[in-house]
Amino acid sequence: xxxxxxxxxxxxxxxxxxxxxxxxxxxxxxxxxxxxxxxxxxxxxxxxxxxxxxxxxxxxxxxxxxxxxxxxxxxxxxxxxxxxxxxxxxxxxxxxxxxxxxxxxxxxxxxxxxxxxxxxxxxxx
Length: 125
Known about the structure:
Elements: H1 12-19, E1 28-37, E2 41-51, H2 60-74, E3 80-81, H3 89-97, H4 103-107, H5 116-122
Parallel strand pairs: 2-3
Antiparallel strand pairs: 1-2
């Protein structure tokens, strides 16, 4: 399959939303940002990796994840972090096949969130 990967622009936001509900010329995306770990230094965090269902299994997810890894290494990052839902076994299997390690048990991390009223309360001095 022939495809290309490029940096996103503001105009892509509407296409990403449309991608979730209809067929479009853009067939996948990876959202990421740079972060810093006090233990291991600069890192890249992949917030989302999505390939439209009819294009899965064609190497597009691998290419997108590889591009994020390339960009991270070029920016001086030494790790790629992301989360995956525990019920999403196909994605878990894919990430593990790419050399990723599930650190939930070994490192003892919990994914935490503060939102809504709790966030409003936390923001009070």
